[in-house]
Each structure stands twice: as structure tokens, then as C-alpha cells.
Inverse folding.
């Protein structure tokens, strides 16, 4: 059993650990003027920055976003042409024949896991939300296979709501290189970005950073020579 003194020690220890953790984080976010410049330049560089997944309703963007993990938007759009004709409601997905569903989505990769997520997510929709996709983060992330990234895409694309910033592999990489965060965990990165980016730019920045990562700030060989942000980027030409 813990004695009062051992509890105190524990408290002291955790306090000093927190202090050490805080000390370790020697990070100063860029000032607001620099953030404004980055947002403006990204706007000029990627005037087409919007969700490229095709959908007609919240359920379709939810399914398409699940399929888009580790897959291009173009490939997902090809697959969803067939998929959305075959399955129209959450109930349809909840009752799907797994072999048939797997076959339709096979070319998006990881089709075993994705088909399970889609069916379990749809069962959750039917059981908890009367088959309707909820329009808030708290409810969305209770659905199997739906984490903050997917929920942010659905909220912004289907409902025009900003409850957070989409952090995928591109946003993670580009925001780190631009010095917008020093974190590697997506949820911590999202918190950092939400602190420094004005709320009315959250949706745009989630998409623009993805576009910038795909087109210029590539994982292996970033195209710093051609990058419109090179004068503002602490990582420019350091690869
Ligand atoms: S300058 Fe280079 S590292 Fe910085 S954002 Fe552009 S491509 Fe990425």
C-alpha cells in the first residue's frame, strides 16, 4: 500500500519528470506574421487545394476517407464509382457480403482491414446514430476505424466544420520541416497547428499542406529549388 510519503515522493517524481519533459521541449513556434505569410503563399501556390475525393453525402466521404489510407485519391475515386452504386446506406454496408466488398475495394490496398473498418463503422452508425453520420468530432471518433484525421476530413468536407486540422503523413512532414511543430505524434502536431493557425484557415491548411507535401516537399527529395516557401523554411536546402 502506498504511504503518504511514498505518494508525496511519487508526486515529486512526476512533477520533476514533467519539468524535465518541458525542458526537453525547446520549441518556439513561428510568429503570427510568418504564419500569415505561409498561409498566403500556400494559397497562391495551391489555388486548387480542396478535397479530391469524390462524394455526394457524408457517408460517402467517410467511406472514401477510410479507403484513402495508403492509397491515391485517384484510385479511391475509381473504386468508389462502383462501390457507391452498390452500397447506398449505412445499413447496406453493415449487411455487406465481405467477399464482395473486399473484391470491390481490393485495388485500394489493405482491403481486408479496410473492409472490416467499413462494415464495423457502418454497424456503429446504424446502432448508435440511426444510420446517419454524426456532424461532430466526439461522436465520429467513437466509430470503429475513425480517428481524428478521418473525422476532420468528414467534418470539413461534408459539414464545413473546423474542429481540428487534418494531420496525415504529408502534413506531419511538411509542418515539421517548416518549423510549425517539433512533435512527431499526429495528435500533438494537430494541437501545435491549432494554436498557431487561425481557425478559419484550419480546413484550408490541412489540405494545402498535403498538396505541398505531394508536389514539392516530398519525403525523400524535397524540391526546395522550386518551393515557394523556401525563404521562410528553416529546413530549406538542408537535404
Ligand atoms: S523549402 Fe524544401 S523543406 Fe522547406 S517546405 Fe519547401 S520543399 Fe519542404
Amino acid at each position: 500500500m502506498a504511504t503518504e510519503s511514498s505518494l508525496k515522493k511519487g508526486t515529486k517524481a512526476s512533477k520533476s519528470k514533467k519539468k524535465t519533459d518541458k525542458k526537453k521541449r525547446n520549441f518556439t513556434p513561428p510568429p503570427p506574421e510568418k504564419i500569415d505569410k505561409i498561409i498566403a503563399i500556400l494559397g497562391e501556390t495551391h489555388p486548387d487545394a480542396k478535397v479530391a475525393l469524390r462524394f455526394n453525402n457524408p457517408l460517402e466521404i467517410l467511406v472514401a476517407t477510410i479507403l484513402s489510407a495508403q492509397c491515391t485519391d485517384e484510385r479511391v475515386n475509381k473504386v468508389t464509382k462502383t462501390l457507391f452504386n452498390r452500397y447506398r446506406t449505412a445499413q447496406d454496408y453493415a449487411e455487406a457480403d465481405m467477399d464482395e466488398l473486399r473484391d470491390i475495394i481490393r485495388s485500394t490496398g489493405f482491403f481486408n482491414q479496410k473492409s472490416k473498418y467499413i462494415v464495423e463503422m457502418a454497424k456503429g452508425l446504424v446502432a448508435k446514430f440511426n444510420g446517419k453520420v454524426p456532424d461532430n468530432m466526439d461522436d465520429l471518433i467513437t466509430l470503429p476505424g475513425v480517428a481524428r484525421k478521418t473525422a476532420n476530413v468528414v467534418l470539413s468536407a461534408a459539414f464545413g466544420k473546423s474542429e481540428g486540422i487534418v494531420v496525415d503523413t504529408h502534413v506531419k512532414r511538411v509542418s515539421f520541416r517548416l518549423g510549425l511543430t517539433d512533435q512527431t505524434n499526429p495528435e500533438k502536431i494537430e494541437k501545435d497547428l491549432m494554436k498557431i493557425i487561425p481557425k478559419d484557415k484550419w480546413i484550408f491548411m490541412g489540405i494545402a499542406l498535403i498538396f505541398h507535401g505531394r508536389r514539392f516537399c516530398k519525403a525523400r527529395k524535397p524540391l526546395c529549388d522550386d518551393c515557394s516557401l523556401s525563404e521562410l523554411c528553416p529546413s530549406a536546402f538542408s537535404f
